[in-house]
Amino acid sequence: MAIVARGDLQETQASIERLGRRAIVINADLEDRSAPEIILKAAPDAGILINNAGIIRRAPLLEYSDDDWDAVIDVNLRSAFALSRRFAKELVDRDRGGRIINIASMLSFQGGVYVAAYTAAKSGLLGLTRAMANELAPLGINVNAIAPGYMATANTQALRDDPVRSRDILARIPAGRWGTPDDLRGAVVFLASPAAVYVHGAVLAVDGGWLCR
Question: Which of 22, 82, 175, 202 has the fewest CB atoms within 10 Å, counting from its CB?
Answer without folding.
Answer: 22
